[in-house]
C-alpha cells in the first residue's frame, strides 16, 4: 500500500471542530510514516470532485475528517473502489462512526487507529445502501423525521440544532399519519398508514438514536423500522425509547429485513445519512461489501 494518503477535511464540521481535528489526525498519520495530502473544497460539489480525483489518482487511502455529511461525501468517492476509507468523526451526529464502533470526537485516537490499520492492512468490507447513484452508510429516513429536517432546513433562525428542536415541536403539532405504499424485496406490497419508515444499513441516526438497533453492516440486509399511525401522545412516549433501541417491542412498531425496498408516499422527502435524496418514491438496495473501511474486524 502506498504511503501517500489523502486527508479529506470539512473545516466547518462540529462548529469548527473539523479544522482543529485535522491537525492531530494528520500528526498521528505523519508520525506513523505516511505522506499526508490535505483536500478541501469550496463547496460540497467541489470537495467531492477533489476527493474523486484523489481516488482516481491512486491515493493509498481517503481519510474523512468531519461529521456524517463529510462521511457521506467520502462514500460517494470510494464506494465500489479498492481505495480504503478512514474515519475521523468530529461532527455533531457521527452515526457512521458509531455504527462501526470507531472513536467519536477523538481525532488523535482516530488518526492513530487509521495509521495502525493501514500498517497492518486491517480493512473491513462493509455494506452500503444505494438509491440510484447515491450511496449511504447509516439510515434512509422518511416521514416524521424527514419532515422535521425539511422544516428545519427552511428556517433561517435560530441556528444550530435548536432550530430542529423547534421544527420538531411544529411537526408534532401538525402530526398526521402518512399513507405509504411499501414494496419489499420478495414482491410483497403493503399499503399502510405510518408515522415514519426508517431503512437501516447502520443502527442509528441523529447522533445516537438507535432507530434500527439490530442493523449490521456485514449481513447484506437492511433492517427496516416502521412506526405506525401514532397519536402525538403515543409518539412522545415511543420516541425517547429510540435512544436505547427498546422501541421495537411497542405494538405500533413493526420491522422487516430485506435486501431492497421501495417507498412511496405523497409529499415526503427521503434523507440518507442526514442528506436529502429527494421526494419519494425511492428504491433502496443493500450492496454487500461496497466499501473498505480502515478498522479492525470485530471479534465474532
From TrEMBL:
Source lineage: Bacteria, Bacillati, Actinomycetota, Actinomycetes, Kitasatosporales
Organism in which the protein naturally occurs: Streptomyces maoxianensis
Xref: InterPro entries: ATP-NAD_kinase_N, Diacylglycerol/lipid_kinase, Diacylglycerol_kinase_cat_dom, Lipid_Phosphate_FormReg, NAD/diacylglycerol_kinase_sf, YegS/DAGK_C
Descriptive protein name: Diacylglycerol kinase
Domain DAGKc, first and last residues per copy: 1-134
Entry keyword set: ATP-binding, Kinase, Lipid biosynthesis, Lipid metabolism, Magnesium, Metal-binding, Nucleotide-binding, Phospholipid biosynthesis, Phospholipid metabolism, Transferase
SUPFAM superfamilies: NAD kinase/diacylglycerol kinase-like
Single annotated GO MF: ATP-dependent diacylglycerol kinase activity
Family: Belongs to the diacylglycerol/lipid kinase family.
Protein EC: 2.7.1.107
Cofactor: Mg(2+)
EC category name: transferase
Amino acid at each position: 500500500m502506498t504511503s501517500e494518503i489523502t486527508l479529506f477535511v470539512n473545516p466547518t464540521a462540529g462548529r469548527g471542530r473539523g479544522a482543529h481535528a485535522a491537525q492531530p489526525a494528520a500528526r498521528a498519520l505523519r508520525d506513523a510514516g505516511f505522506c499526508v495530502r490535505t483536500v478541501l473544497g469550496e463547496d460540497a460539489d467541489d470537495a467531492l470532485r477533489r476527493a474523486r480525483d484523489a481516488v482516481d489518482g491512486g491515493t493509498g487511502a481517503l481519510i474523512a475528517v468531519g461529521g456524517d455529511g463529510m462521511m457521506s461525501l467520502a462514500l460517494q468517492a470510494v464506494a465500489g473502489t479498492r481505495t480504503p476509507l478512514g474515519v475521523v468523526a468530529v461532527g455533531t451526529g457521527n452515526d457512521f462512526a458509531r455504527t462501526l464502533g470507531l472513536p467519536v470526537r477523538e481525532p488523535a485516537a482516530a488518526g492513530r487507529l487509521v495509521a495502525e490499520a493501514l500498517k497492518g492492512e486491517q480493512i473491513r468490507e462493509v455494506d452500503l445502501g444505494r438509491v440510484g447513484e447515491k450511496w449511504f452508510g447509516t439510515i434512509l429516513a422518511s416521514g416524521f423525521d424527514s419532515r422535521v429536517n425539511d422544516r428545519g432546513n427552511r428556517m433561517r433562525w435560530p441556528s444550530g440544532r435548536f432550530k430542529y428542536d423547534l421544527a420538531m415541536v411544529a411537526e408534532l403539532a401538525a402530526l398526521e399519519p402518512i399513507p405509504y405504499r411499501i414494496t419489499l424485496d420478495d414482491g410483497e406490497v403493503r399499503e399502510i398508514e405510518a408515522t415514519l419508515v426508517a431503512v437501516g444499513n447502520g443502527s442509528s441516526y441523529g447522533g445516537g438514536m438507535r432507530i434500527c438497533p439490530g442493523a449490521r453492516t456485514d449481513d447484506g440486509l437492511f433492517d427496516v423500522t416502521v412506526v405506525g399511525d401514532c397519536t402525538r401522545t403515543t409518539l412522545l412516549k415511543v420516541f425517547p425509547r429510540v435512544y436505547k433501541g427498546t422501541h421495537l417491542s411497542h405494538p405500533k412498531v413493526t420491522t422487516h429485513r430485506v435486501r431492497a425496498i421501495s417507498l412511496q408516499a405523497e409529499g415526503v422527502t427521503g434523507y440518507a445519512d442526514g442528506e436529502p435524496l429527494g421526494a419519494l418514491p425511492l428504491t433502496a438496495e443493500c450492496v454487500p461489501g461496497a466499501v473498505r473501511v480502515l478498522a479492525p474486524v470485530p471479534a465474532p
